[in-house]
Write a structure and sequence with these properties.
Strand order of the largest sheet: 3-4-5-7-8-9-10-11
Shape: rod-shaped
Strand content: 35-45%
Radius of gyration: 43 Å
Structural class: alpha+beta
Number of strands: 18
Order of helices and strands: HEEEHEEEEHEEEHEEHEEEHEHEE
CATH topology of the largest domain: Porin
Number of helices: 7
Largest sheet: 8 strands, antiparallel, barrel
Number of domains: 2
Helix content: 10-25%
Length: 424
């Protein structure tokens, strides 16, 4: 008992681990100017996306052999009862596990009847070859007729239900259930129409992305009177049966058959893995609020400009911080005014070099977005100093640090900046 419990626990653990692996997801993020797009794709083979109505259709054609199961047919030689079977189906899979189809089945009916009894259909004058003696009155003769059966069926792909969707699986086990309309007719013009019920098992073998080989075992049942012979509870007064037969026989007739054929998949096939897409946009209301907060903090930033280094007659104040609005790289006019003074001091000290380093707040935006902001903020300051205010490019060292922790006063606003400092 103990060994059994340990084995059960081990198998359960492996099963849960396999399920956990089947349920993994992969998330990708695409950065845009307005925010980002986050796409999550499930790796769970039990979850797929639905598709369009015209996807996952198929057509199949099968041929084989079938035998009619009537009331007196058990006395007839089995080989004489076997007739060709033809099945043609067109259908659609709505999910990897559930599909429907409409089928034509047909060809011949062959059995035996007692010429001493009344009411049988499909009579011929040919004496039936018996596999065992018939104990009743009269002679058993052959029944022979043609028929067709149009039926609708539901397909259950048990392989996909239990093992998950796999479009390249070689073998699939597919039971079927359905109902239809059975019509028979013989050389004398005798006709019969009955409701039919169908069940089967399709053993499907994948040959390629379009073709399958199908080995199908199927059965059909309908009312006991389809051949004009009734027994069991329905035995009629004008029919004389061998004593005891009314108890042995069952109250329906049917077919049993085996067919082999091909299925061709029409149009677009398969199902995509389940996925969800979420788009995140920058909240402009919040940005406006934060920009006002930046304006309020400008006066505090002036304290960073109070470190002075004396060079000749010029007083150089460094480091110098150029502040930017959230998610922006353009330089504000008030910063341009200050940069003009900084440029004049740089040109007055041509023997010195200065770092121009861009930053962004790591807590706002993605890594990719922050790298973009830091780099372009530094480039814009470099351009203004060199192109607009005439600072030699050889005096400047351009750099960027991407998104960073709060650098001053534990305030993320002050990290959205470019800092100019003297190269030591």
């Amino acid at each position: 008992m103990r060994k059994f419990l340990l084995s059960f626990i081990a198998v359960t653990a492996m099963t849960l681990n396999a399920v956990a692996q089947d349920s993994q997801v992969v998330t990708t993020v695409e950065e845009t100017e307005n925010g980002r797009i986050e796409t999550t794709v499930s790796q769970d083979k039990y979850k797929v996306e639905t598709n369009r109505f015209w996807n996952n259709w198929f057509i199949s054609a099968n041929g084989g052999a079938q035998v009619f199961l009537g009331d007196l047919d058990k006395y007839m030689k089995f080989g004489d009862r076997v007739v060709p079977a033809i099945d043609v189906t067109i259908g659609k899979w709505f999910t990897p596990s559930i599909g429907v189809g409409v089928s034509y089945s047909g060809f011949k009916v062959k059995g035996a009847y007692n010429d001493a009894l009344l009411g049988q259909r499909w009579r011929t004058n040919d004496v039936a070859k018996l596999r065992k003696d018939y104990p009743g009155n009269g002679t058993l003769r052959e029944q022979n007729a043609s028929f067709f059966d149009f039926h609708a069926d539901v397909f259950f792909n048990i392989s996909n239900m239990l093992c998950g969707y796999n479009p390249k699986r070689f073998y699939n086990f597919i039971p079927t259930l359905g109902a239809g309309y059975f019509h028979s007719y013989d050389h004398d013009g005798d006709k019969a129409n009955y409701l039919s019920f169908h069940a089967g098992i399709i053993n499907k073998f994948r040959l390629s992305s379009r073709w399958d080989l199908d080995l199908t075992i199927r059965g059909t049942i309908f009312d006991d009177g389809v051949d004009g012979e009734v027994s069991g509870k329905q035995v009629s007064a004008n029919q004389t049966w061998t004593p005891g037969d009314e108890k042995k026989n069952i109250d329906f007739d049917g077919f049993a058959g085996v067919t082999l054929g091909l299925t061709y998949r029409i149009g677009k096939q398969g199902w995509g893995m389940s996925k969800s897409v979420r788009e995140y946009y920058v909240d402009n209301t919040e940005i406006n609020r934060l920009n006002k907060e930046v304006d309020r903090l400008i006066k505090e930033n002036e304290a960073l400009r109070n470190r002075k280094y004396e060079t000749g007659k010029e007083i150089i104040t460094f480091p110098y911080l150029v502040n930017f609005k959230i998610d922006k790289t353009n330089i504000q006019n008030r910063e341009l005014v200050n940069l003009k003074t900084v440029a004049d001091m740089m040109k007055a000290t041509p023997e010195k070099k200065y770092n121009v380093v861009g930053y962004a707040d790591k807590y706002t935006g993605s890594v990719k977005r922050n790298d973009y902001l830091a780099k372009n903020r530094a480039k814009n300051v470099f351009r203004v100093l060199t192109e607009e205010f005439g600072v030699p490019a050889s005096q400047l060292v351009l750099d960027d640090k991407g998104g960073v922790e709060n650098m001053f006063y534990d305030d993320p606003q002050l990290s959205r900046s470019v800092i100019i400092s003297e190269v030591k």
